[in-house]
Write a structure and sequence with these properties.
- By secondary structure, the protein is α/β, with parallel strands linked by helices.
- It has a single domain, classed as Rossmann fold, CATH 3.40.50.12780.
- A seven-stranded mixed beta sheet has the order 7-6-5-3-4-8-9, sandwiched between helices. Strands 2-1-11-10 form a four-stranded mixed beta sheet.
- Helix 4 crosses helix 5.
- The longest helix is centred in the N-terminal third of the chain and has 17 residues.
- The radius of gyration is 17 Å and the shape is globular.
Length: about 240
Amino acid sequence: MSDWLQRRAQLSPTAPAIIDVSGPGGLAGAREIDYRTLEAETNQVAAWLQAQRIGPGDRVAILAKNRLEYLQLWFACGKLGAALQALNWRLTVGELGPLITQARPRLLCWDRDFVAEVAALRPILGSVRTVALDEDLADPDELRLSSCRELACTAPDRQASWEPGQPWVLCYTGGTTGQAKAALLTHGTITWNAVNTVSSWGLSKSDVAILNAPMFHTGGLNVFTAPLIHAGGCSILCREFDLEL
Protein backbone atom coordinates (compact mmCIF):
# COMPACT_ATOMS: atom_id res chain seq x y z
CA MET A 1 0.00 0.00 0.00
CA SER A 2 1.37 3.42 -0.91
CA ASP A 3 1.75 6.44 1.37
CA TRP A 4 -1.51 8.16 0.50
CA LEU A 5 -1.01 11.12 2.83
CA GLN A 6 2.11 11.92 0.80
CA ARG A 7 0.15 11.42 -2.41
CA ARG A 8 -2.65 13.70 -1.22
CA ALA A 9 -0.08 16.39 -0.35
CA GLN A 10 1.19 16.16 -3.92
CA LEU A 11 -2.31 16.36 -5.42
CA SER A 12 -3.74 19.19 -3.30
CA PRO A 13 -0.96 20.74 -1.23
CA THR A 14 -2.77 23.93 -0.24
CA ALA A 15 -6.19 22.39 0.46
CA PRO A 16 -7.22 22.38 4.14
CA ALA A 17 -6.68 18.98 5.74
CA ILE A 18 -7.32 19.75 9.40
CA ILE A 19 -8.87 22.59 11.35
CA ASP A 20 -7.37 21.96 14.77
CA VAL A 21 -9.48 23.15 17.70
CA SER A 22 -8.15 20.51 20.10
CA GLY A 23 -5.82 22.86 21.97
CA PRO A 24 -6.58 24.70 25.23
CA GLY A 25 -7.86 27.71 23.29
CA GLY A 26 -10.55 25.73 21.47
CA LEU A 27 -12.11 27.72 18.65
CA ALA A 28 -10.19 30.84 19.64
CA GLY A 29 -6.94 28.99 19.03
CA ALA A 30 -8.03 27.22 15.85
CA ARG A 31 -5.27 26.40 13.38
CA GLU A 32 -5.92 25.49 9.75
CA ILE A 33 -3.41 22.98 8.39
CA ASP A 34 -3.13 22.25 4.69
CA TYR A 35 -2.03 18.93 3.24
CA ARG A 36 1.50 20.09 2.47
CA THR A 37 1.98 21.15 6.10
CA LEU A 38 0.35 18.01 7.50
CA GLU A 39 2.65 15.85 5.37
CA ALA A 40 5.75 17.85 6.35
CA GLU A 41 4.99 17.76 10.08
CA THR A 42 4.11 14.06 9.92
CA ASN A 43 7.45 13.41 8.22
CA GLN A 44 9.16 15.14 11.15
CA VAL A 45 7.34 12.83 13.55
CA ALA A 46 8.35 9.82 11.43
CA ALA A 47 11.99 10.97 11.41
CA TRP A 48 11.85 11.37 15.19
CA LEU A 49 10.43 7.86 15.56
CA GLN A 50 13.21 6.52 13.34
CA ALA A 51 15.73 8.24 15.61
CA GLN A 52 14.19 6.23 18.46
CA ARG A 53 14.80 3.10 16.33
CA ILE A 54 11.16 2.56 15.49
CA GLY A 55 10.75 0.54 12.31
CA PRO A 56 8.66 -2.15 10.61
CA GLY A 57 6.86 -4.36 13.10
CA ASP A 58 7.44 -2.10 16.11
CA ARG A 59 4.57 -0.74 18.17
CA VAL A 60 4.03 2.75 19.53
CA ALA A 61 1.40 3.10 22.26
CA ILE A 62 -0.56 6.28 22.88
CA LEU A 63 -2.73 7.27 25.84
CA ALA A 64 -4.14 10.65 24.90
CA LYS A 65 -7.27 12.47 23.90
CA ASN A 66 -7.67 13.77 20.36
CA ARG A 67 -4.91 16.13 19.27
CA LEU A 68 -2.86 16.83 16.17
CA GLU A 69 0.08 14.74 17.38
CA TYR A 70 -2.23 11.71 17.63
CA LEU A 71 -3.07 12.01 13.94
CA GLN A 72 0.57 12.60 13.02
CA LEU A 73 1.78 9.63 15.06
CA TRP A 74 -0.80 7.46 13.33
CA PHE A 75 0.37 8.36 9.83
CA ALA A 76 4.03 8.44 10.85
CA CYS A 77 3.73 4.84 12.05
CA GLY A 78 2.15 4.01 8.70
CA LYS A 79 5.10 5.53 6.86
CA LEU A 80 7.53 3.37 8.86
CA GLY A 81 5.62 0.09 8.86
CA ALA A 82 5.09 0.37 12.62
CA ALA A 83 1.74 -0.06 14.39
CA LEU A 84 0.04 2.49 16.64
CA GLN A 85 -1.37 0.93 19.81
CA ALA A 86 -4.39 3.16 20.46
CA LEU A 87 -5.15 2.76 24.17
CA ASN A 88 -8.67 3.32 25.45
CA TRP A 89 -8.42 6.06 28.08
CA ARG A 90 -11.70 4.91 29.62
CA LEU A 91 -9.98 1.78 30.93
CA THR A 92 -8.49 1.66 34.42
CA VAL A 93 -4.77 1.39 35.09
CA GLY A 94 -5.37 -2.24 36.04
CA GLU A 95 -6.94 -2.86 32.64
CA LEU A 96 -4.35 -0.90 30.65
CA GLY A 97 -1.35 -2.65 32.19
CA PRO A 98 -1.97 -6.09 30.63
CA LEU A 99 -2.59 -4.53 27.21
CA ILE A 100 0.78 -2.80 27.30
CA THR A 101 2.50 -5.95 28.57
CA GLN A 102 0.96 -8.06 25.80
CA ALA A 103 1.63 -5.66 22.92
CA ARG A 104 5.19 -4.80 24.03
CA PRO A 105 5.34 -1.29 22.52
CA ARG A 106 8.70 0.45 22.28
CA LEU A 107 7.22 3.81 23.29
CA LEU A 108 4.24 5.05 25.31
CA CYS A 109 3.08 8.54 24.32
CA TRP A 110 0.87 10.38 26.80
CA ASP A 111 -0.73 13.76 27.31
CA ARG A 112 -1.79 16.09 30.08
CA ASP A 113 -5.01 14.31 31.05
CA PHE A 114 -3.20 11.12 32.03
CA VAL A 115 -0.37 12.15 34.33
CA ALA A 116 -1.66 10.00 37.20
CA GLU A 117 -2.32 6.97 34.99
CA VAL A 118 1.16 7.02 33.45
CA ALA A 119 2.73 7.43 36.89
CA ALA A 120 0.83 4.36 38.08
CA LEU A 121 1.86 2.38 34.98
CA ARG A 122 5.59 3.13 35.21
CA PRO A 123 6.45 0.15 37.47
CA ILE A 124 5.26 -2.32 34.81
CA LEU A 125 6.67 -0.54 31.74
CA GLY A 126 10.12 -2.13 31.86
CA SER A 127 12.00 -1.08 28.73
CA VAL A 128 9.05 0.92 27.34
CA ARG A 129 10.14 4.55 27.09
CA THR A 130 7.58 7.25 27.81
CA VAL A 131 7.04 10.23 25.51
CA ALA A 132 5.45 13.43 26.79
CA LEU A 133 3.19 15.12 24.25
CA ASP A 134 3.03 18.19 26.50
CA GLU A 135 6.58 19.43 26.96
CA ASP A 136 5.89 21.27 30.22
CA LEU A 137 4.84 18.02 31.93
CA ALA A 138 7.87 15.96 30.88
CA ASP A 139 10.33 14.64 33.44
CA PRO A 140 13.93 15.84 32.90
CA ASP A 141 15.03 12.52 31.37
CA GLU A 142 11.82 11.86 29.44
CA LEU A 143 11.44 11.91 25.67
CA ARG A 144 9.55 14.88 24.22
CA LEU A 145 7.79 14.61 20.89
CA SER A 146 8.16 18.37 20.40
CA SER A 147 11.86 17.82 19.66
CA CYS A 148 10.81 16.40 16.28
CA ARG A 149 10.29 19.96 15.01
CA GLU A 150 14.06 20.33 14.78
CA LEU A 151 14.21 17.56 12.16
CA ALA A 152 13.88 17.61 8.38
CA CYS A 153 10.43 17.61 6.80
CA THR A 154 11.37 15.17 4.04
CA ALA A 155 9.75 11.76 3.78
CA PRO A 156 11.59 9.04 5.72
CA ASP A 157 13.49 6.26 4.00
CA ARG A 158 11.11 3.37 3.49
CA GLN A 159 10.10 0.63 1.10
CA ALA A 160 8.14 1.69 -1.98
CA SER A 161 5.00 0.26 -0.40
CA TRP A 162 3.77 -1.97 2.38
CA GLU A 163 1.92 -5.22 1.90
CA PRO A 164 -1.84 -4.91 2.55
CA GLY A 165 -1.46 -7.17 5.58
CA GLN A 166 1.12 -4.92 7.27
CA PRO A 167 -0.22 -3.93 10.74
CA TRP A 168 -0.99 -0.23 11.18
CA VAL A 169 -3.24 0.18 14.25
CA LEU A 170 -4.16 -1.85 17.31
CA CYS A 171 -7.66 -0.92 18.47
CA TYR A 172 -9.43 -2.59 21.38
CA THR A 173 -12.84 -3.96 22.21
CA GLY A 174 -14.71 -2.36 25.10
CA GLY A 175 -13.80 -5.06 27.61
CA THR A 176 -17.37 -5.38 28.89
CA THR A 177 -17.27 -9.19 29.00
CA GLY A 178 -13.65 -9.58 30.09
CA GLN A 179 -10.27 -8.15 29.21
CA ALA A 180 -10.29 -5.81 26.21
CA LYS A 181 -9.11 -7.63 23.09
CA ALA A 182 -6.96 -6.20 20.34
CA ALA A 183 -8.31 -5.76 16.82
CA LEU A 184 -5.47 -5.46 14.32
CA LEU A 185 -6.15 -2.95 11.55
CA THR A 186 -3.82 -3.37 8.59
CA HIS A 187 -2.83 -1.01 5.80
CA GLY A 188 -5.25 -2.88 3.57
CA THR A 189 -8.10 -2.67 6.07
CA ILE A 190 -7.75 1.08 6.60
CA THR A 191 -7.10 1.90 2.94
CA TRP A 192 -9.98 -0.13 1.54
CA ASN A 193 -12.32 1.11 4.24
CA ALA A 194 -11.40 4.64 3.15
CA VAL A 195 -11.95 3.82 -0.53
CA ASN A 196 -15.31 2.15 0.18
CA THR A 197 -16.46 5.02 2.41
CA VAL A 198 -15.49 7.63 -0.17
CA SER A 199 -17.41 5.68 -2.81
CA SER A 200 -20.52 4.80 -0.79
CA TRP A 201 -20.93 8.23 0.83
CA GLY A 202 -19.87 10.15 -2.27
CA LEU A 203 -17.18 12.02 -0.35
CA SER A 204 -15.11 14.64 -2.15
CA LYS A 205 -12.52 17.32 -1.50
CA SER A 206 -15.31 19.77 -0.65
CA ASP A 207 -16.52 17.75 2.36
CA VAL A 208 -15.85 18.65 5.99
CA ALA A 209 -16.54 16.49 9.05
CA ILE A 210 -16.22 17.01 12.79
CA LEU A 211 -13.77 14.64 14.47
CA ASN A 212 -14.86 14.47 18.10
CA ALA A 213 -15.09 10.69 18.52
CA PRO A 214 -12.09 9.35 20.46
CA MET A 215 -9.25 8.35 18.17
CA PHE A 216 -8.62 5.17 20.16
CA HIS A 217 -11.89 3.99 18.55
CA THR A 218 -12.20 2.87 14.96
CA GLY A 219 -14.96 5.47 14.56
CA GLY A 220 -12.50 8.24 15.36
CA LEU A 221 -9.96 6.91 12.89
CA ASN A 222 -12.14 5.66 10.07
CA VAL A 223 -15.36 7.75 10.22
CA PHE A 224 -14.50 10.00 8.48
CA THR A 225 -10.89 10.94 9.19
CA ALA A 226 -9.05 8.49 6.97
CA PRO A 227 -11.63 8.62 4.14
CA LEU A 228 -11.51 12.42 4.05
CA ILE A 229 -7.72 12.42 3.86
CA HIS A 230 -7.99 9.93 1.01
CA ALA A 231 -10.53 12.15 -0.77
CA GLY A 232 -8.81 15.45 0.02
CA GLY A 233 -11.50 16.74 2.39
CA CYS A 234 -11.12 18.37 5.79
CA SER A 235 -11.65 17.26 9.41
CA ILE A 236 -12.34 19.61 12.32
CA LEU A 237 -10.20 18.08 15.06
CA CYS A 238 -11.79 18.39 18.52
CA ARG A 239 -10.16 17.13 21.71
CA GLU A 240 -13.42 15.42 22.65
CA PHE A 241 -17.16 15.93 22.35
CA ASP A 242 -18.06 19.36 23.67
CA LEU A 243 -21.65 20.58 23.47
CA GLU A 244 -20.52 24.19 23.89
CA LEU A 245 -17.86 24.14 21.17
